Amino acid sequence: MSSCGWSTGSTSNSRRYVDFFMIKRPSQAIFTKLFSARTPVRLFHSALRVNHHTLRYAKRRVRALILRHLDVFKLYADQPQARLDFLKREVLLDPELSFLMQYEDGWAVDVLVRLVYHQRLRLVQQKQLNSIRSQQHNYRQRLFTSHPRVSPELRIGVRCTRSKLKNDAEVATTSSAVALLATHLDSVTPSLLRFQPAIVKAGLCTDEHLHQLFRMLPTSRDNFILQALGTEKSTLFERVLVMDILEQMNKEKW
Q1: Are 128 and 101 in the same domain?
Q2: Are 109 and 88 within 8 A, CB to CB?
Q3: Sequence-ordered alpha helix ranges (H) in the chain
């Protein structure tokens, strides 16, 4: 089969494709190799008929869609087929990835999704970072809306102004240790990564929160973990492991 005849414009963000034709699905042997994490990159270039820059660009776009539409805390094999089918449609409908329409049955999308998902830990860390940034943004919004503007005359004698807001903002943006929570939870066997969203949702989203947790009485800490993880979704052993991980993170930070 002749090489793929499409080109990209160097002065435009949009991609134009010419001489469009359908690229057949490869043999099952090659298709299986494309799903392997150890497959050399050159095989992807050859099978997909794209250069290095196009493959890297496509992976970046697919990664963003995966973060938006899939639960990356689950293994690929545990993803509902309905969500995978929805993701595939979203990829094919992306104007920046329109060249993927020329692959028979959109088989290149399956390959790209699996290729990106091989780096699941990276996806989890990015998902957590996005969550922290969103919480920080919401925190700052609440912080500034809770301090309405007043006239210069009324500001006399008011101590809680810019310095306090700056300190509060610094507390909200300090999350270096908690940002690695997913890595610590995934480091044990079996993995406890599925508990990370519940812990963050319960309010543990900055290093100061982590430090404050270990200022509490042991019964208060146990109650926090119990309420965050729930008795129906976690075992006693898992809750003890999570508490041990948090305690170790607190010691490393402080």
Answers
A1: no
A2: yes
A3: 28-34, 41-48, 52-69, 81-93, 107-117, 120-145, 162-173, 181-186, 196-201, 207-213, 218-229, 236-253
Within-domain flag for 5: no
| Global model pTM greater than 0.70 | no
Domain boundary among 118, 145, 168: 118
On the 0-12 / 13-18 / 19+ scale of CB atoms within 10 A, 162 is exposed
**Full domain range(s) for residue 39:** 28-118
- pLDDT tens across 154-203, in order? 444 444 444 444 444 444 443 456 667 788 888 887 888 888 888 888 88
Rg (C-alpha) for the chain, rounded Å, is: 24
Dump pLDDT digits (tens) for 93-151. Answer: 988 898 888 888 889 899 899 889 988 888 888 888 877 777 776 666 666 665 555 45
Distances (CA, A) of 191 to 62, 164, 183, 241: 26, 40, 10, 11
Q: For residue 194, which of 223, 228, 220, 221 has the smallest C-alpha distance?
A: 228
The most distant pair of C-alpha atoms in the chain lies apart, rounded to whole Å, by 80
* Rounded Cα gap, residues 216 and 218, in angstroms: 6
Residue 14 lies in a domain: no
> DSSP character for 103?
B
The domain total for the chain is: 2
In angstroms, the CA 88 to CA 248 distance is 40
Q: Which residues contact 130 (CB under 8 A, 6 or more apart)?
A: 67
Same structural domain, 52 and 165: no
Where is the domain boundary, 86, 118, 150?
118
